[in-house]
């Protein structure tokens, strides 16, 4: 008997040193079972299974011990009368975030992490964060399966801690969903309202950003061009994700479309990507005499743009069409949208203009000013072209 308790003690200290080492828990379980402490042994087997769900040998042992237990459990994890203090929340911590497991998943190498923690690690390299086993195949299939048993163990024995953990998660999600305060900013290219913007996402920080925009359900983020001094420009365009295609290695192609313009009020950072406090830009509406003038200007610049596009060479035209779609038709009411007519943005994306010039026009909240600026560019490109 003395030897048994010594074995239990040894295994216990081993578990203390390496709490996530399944073998240590298995040794402890065996020692406890041999010492006749079946209830405690079963708890340790639960731990083993939670850490390594597909460990058949342990499952069989657990079933054997289960039959000998003082409490009558109907299923493997049905020990409803187990003392809660046998399970410490410290044993159920994710080694990546040091918090209680949230949506735990087990890797093929038998390690358990929160789903989101594991995903963030795999953004950087495809190895298990603990044992460094290559997880490329696992990543490719995206077969992250939640370890239901672990969830059950958490719910049953650490209900309060789990509820607290859930609350923290929900607060984080709420914070991430706020599209005014700390809007994620993708620093890459010029984007315009109503114009499609396909993105190839490979940088870890942007993988995280895209995933979050999908998880929170906002499916939106800001797009700005880079700025040498500030990091990114003072104006940008919100993009709405229409579709995401993931490649086996974790890269993705994201199909987005511009929705609204914004002005950056302050710059920030979050988990490696840029964020900004923003204010949405809306065109100032005009009335009466001014509106009559505006419609006249609108119609004439539209015709000018249309004839410029018609005059382009066929191969140039088809290139533009395949990238940006058809030249949008004229709006009956040029002030209908807070961004103004779509054709202006289409033209701005298509015309051979530098980013800085595009940005100046993007920032304008007067449709009249925007039309005048576009007309100036049209005159310039029409003159420049050799006849
Ligand atoms: Zn975690
Ligand atoms: Zn591993």
TrEMBL record:
Entry-linked Pfam families: LON_substr_bdg, zf-C3HC4_2
Domain RING-type positions: 94-132
Domain Lon N-terminal: 173-382
InterPro entries: Lon_prtase_N, Lon_prtase_N_sf, PUA-like_sf, TPR-like_helical_dom_sf, Znf_RING, Znf_RING/FYVE/PHD, Znf_RING_CS
Keywords tagged on the record: Metal-binding, Zinc, Zinc-finger
GO molecular function, one term: zinc ion binding
Gene3D superfamilies: LON domain-like, Tetratricopeptide repeat domain, Zinc/RING finger domain, C3HC4 (zinc finger)
Residues in coiled coil: none
Keyword Zinc-finger: yes
GO cellular component: cytoplasm
PANTHER family for the chain: LON PEPTIDASE N-TERMINAL DOMAIN AND RING FINGER PROTEIN 2 (PTHR23327:SF5), RING FINGER PROTEIN 127 (PTHR23327)
The protein, known as: LON peptidase N-terminal domain and ring finger 2
């Amino acid at each position: 008997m003395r030897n048994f308790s010594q074995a239990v003690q040894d295994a216990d200290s081993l578990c203390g040193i390496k709490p996530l080492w399944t073998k240590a828990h298995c040794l402890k379980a065996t020692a406890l079972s041999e010492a006749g402490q079946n209830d405690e042994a079963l708890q340790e087997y639960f731990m083993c299974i939670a850490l390594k769900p597909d460990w058949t040998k342990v499952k069989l042992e657990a079933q054997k011990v289960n039959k000998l237990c003082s409490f009558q459990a109907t299923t493997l994890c049905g020990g409803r009368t187990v003392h809660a203090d046998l399970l410490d929340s410290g044993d159920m911590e994710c080694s990546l975030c040091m918090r209680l497991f949230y949506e735990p998943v087990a890797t093929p190498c038998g390690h358990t992490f929160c789903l989101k923690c594991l995903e963030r690690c795999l953004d950087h390299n495809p190895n298990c964060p603990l044992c460094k086993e290559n997880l490329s195949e696992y990543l490719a299939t995206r077969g992250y399966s939640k370890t239901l048993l672990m969830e059950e163990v958490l719910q049953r024995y650490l209900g309060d801690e789990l509820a607290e953990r859930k609350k923290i998660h929900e607060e984080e999600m709420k914070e991430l969903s706020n599209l005014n305060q700390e809007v994620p900013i993708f620093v890459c290219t010029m984007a315009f309202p109503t114009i499609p913007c396909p993105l190839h996402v490979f940088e870890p920080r942007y993988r995280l950003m895209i995933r979050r925009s999908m998880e929170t359900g906002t499916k939106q983020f800001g797009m700005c061009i880079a700025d040498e001094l500030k990091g990114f420009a003072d104006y940008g365009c919100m993009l709405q994700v229409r579709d995401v295609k993931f490649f086996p290695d974790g890269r993705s192609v994201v199909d987005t479309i511009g929705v609204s313009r914004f002005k950056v009020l302050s710059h920030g950072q979050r988990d490696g990507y840029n964020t900004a406090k923003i204010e949405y830009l809306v065109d100032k509406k005009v009335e009466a005499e001014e509106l009559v003038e505006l419609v006249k200007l609108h119609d004439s610049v539209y015709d000018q743009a249309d004839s410029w596009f018609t005059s382009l060479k066929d191969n140039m035209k088809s290139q533009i069409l395949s990238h940006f779609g058809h030249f949008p038709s004229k709006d009956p009411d040029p002030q209908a949208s807070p961004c103004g007519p779509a054709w202006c943005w289409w033209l701005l994306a298509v015309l051979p203009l530098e980013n800085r010039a595009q940005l100046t026009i993007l920032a304008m909240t007067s449709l009249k000013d925007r039309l005048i600026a576009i007309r100036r560019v049209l005159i310039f490109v029409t003159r420049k072209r050799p006849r």
